[in-house]
TrEMBL record:
Keywords: Amino-acid biosynthesis, Lyase, Pyridoxal phosphate, Threonine biosynthesis. Belongs to the threonine synthase family. It holds the Pfam family PALP. Its cofactor is pyridoxal 5'-phosphate. The lineage of its organism: Bacteria, Bacillati, Actinomycetota, Actinomycetes, Micrococcales. Pyridoxal 5'-phosphate binds at residues 87, 187-191, 317. Its EC number is 4.2.3.1. The modification N6-(pyridoxal phosphate)lysine is found at residue 61. Residues 24-318 form the Tryptophan synthase beta chain-like PALP domain. One of its GO terms (biological process) is threonine biosynthetic process. It catalyses: O-phospho-L-homoserine + H2O = L-threonine + phosphate. GO terms for molecular function: L-serine ammonia-lyase activity; pyridoxal phosphate binding; threonine deaminase activity; threonine synthase activity. This is Threonine synthase.
Length: 355
């Protein structure tokens, strides 16, 4: 019986791999593109959500990690290293475990979601909390990879972006063309770059008829690309994208120029509002960083920048179960406490308003 074989096997002809490349896969990719009627109704566009939380470790990072770890093993690496706000470390740890090699991961102390920390520990990574932010962690990881026998698997490693571009292939395949607009959250801007590359390749191959405008959104307290300057102390509840000096900044600006793209900033309140809308009206549970795609769509629609009837794809990058605490926070900022009822059917019926 057919089973999705992971992005390296599914797209072998589109990636720089050969018979000498060991395929280290957990079956990543093939994620659902979900129509979102509630978001279409709010915006007048034709909105779809690419749910990357459905990847094996719960984020889009797996697409790039299968490529990066496979190539690292091909080149004889016995250990890999990355800096991470949590998802990259979870993914690197899982793929390294599968490959039987060591993963060392550097994370900002106290600043990554519990689910992600648990994943890295469970997959037996050598995890160090650095007394600094993500940008500091990346500086150290790069220096270590330059000076010691350890292979860097952050998205400054080109294999990562190559693997991640496969998400655009899937969108084109499902819609039978590229969308008009594609929206992603932006941290290091690797994924923004990767989607643009995938769409560019599909257009150049003649598979699609257009290049989507790439819209990327950063949290207002961590918006270096929007500001045009490094942010020294980035801050946002969206811990995955708390990044002040994006590694793929230049590549992303080139992708923006090629696609008539856009970068915008979104407040934490708007991120949490979008998180509630996506959960309650569409039925998709994501981590806060992912909800910024929805917030960005709503902001652009309000600004009159989303043409009626346009096909818009939002990538939601990570699963809500990684960082579930935000769902409990009500609109008023107070945590929801589920009602307690006696062990009695009549009482439950009464409380539910059924009686
Ligand atoms: N969404 C999530 C859930 C992420 O974890 C990240 C990045 C992004 C969006 C932004 O993607 O960096 O390609 O622009 N997380 C990295 C990590 C930094 O370490 O897990 P980007």
């Amino acid at each position: 019986a057919h089973q999705w074989r992971g992005v390296l096997r599914e797209y072998a002809d589109r990636l720089d791999i050969s018979d000498a490349t060991p395929i280290i896969t957990l079956g990543e990719g093939g994620t659902p593109l979900i129509p979102a009627p509630a978001l279409s109704a709010r915006t007048g566009a034709n909105v779809y959500v690419k749910f990357e939380g459905m990847n094996p470790t719960g984020s889009f990072k797996d697409r790039g990690m299968t490529m990066a770890i496979s190539k690292a093993v091909e080149h004889g690496a016995k250990a890999v290293i990355c800096a991470s706000t949590g998802n990259t470390s979870a993914s690197a740890a899982a793929y390294a475990a599968h490959a039987g090699i060591t993963a060392a991961v550097l994370v900002p102390e106290g600043k990554i979601a519990l689910g992600k920390l648990s994943q890295a520990i469970a997959h037996n990574a050598e995890l160090l909390q650095i007394q600094g932010n993500f940008d500091d962690c990346l500086d150290i990881a790069r220096e270590l990879a330059a000076n010691y026998p350890v292979h860097l698997v952050n998205s400054v490693n080109p294999d990562r972006i190559e693997g991640q571009k496969t998400a655009a292939f899937e969108v084109v395949e499902t819609l039978e063309d590229a969308p008009d607009i594609h929206i992603v959250p932006v941290g290091n801007a690797g994924n923004y770059t990767a989607y643009h590359r995938g769409y560019r390749e599909e257009l150049d191959r003649g598979v699609s008829t257009k290049l989507p405008r790439m819209f990327g959104f950063q949290a207002a307290g961590s918006a270096p690309i929007v500001l045009g300057a490094i942010v020294k102390n980035p801050d946002t509840i969206a811990s995955a994208i708390r990044i002040g000096n994006p590694a793929s900044w230049e590549l992303a600006l080139a992708a923006q120029a090629d696609s008539d793209g856009y970068f915008g900033a979104i407040s934490d309140d708007k991120i949490l509002e979008a998180h509630r809308i996506l959960s309650a009206e569409v039925g998709i549970f994501v981590e806060p960083a992912s909800a910024i795609s929805v917030a960005g769509l709503l902001e652009r629609a309000e600004a009159g920048q989303i043409p009626r009837g346009a096909t818009v794809v939002l990538t939601v990058t990570g699963h809500g179960l990684k960082d579930p605490q935000w769902a409990l926070r009500g609109k008023d900022g107070v945590d929801v406490a589920p009602t307690v009822v006696a062990n009695d059917t009549a009482e439950v019926a009464g409380v539910l308003g059924l009686a």
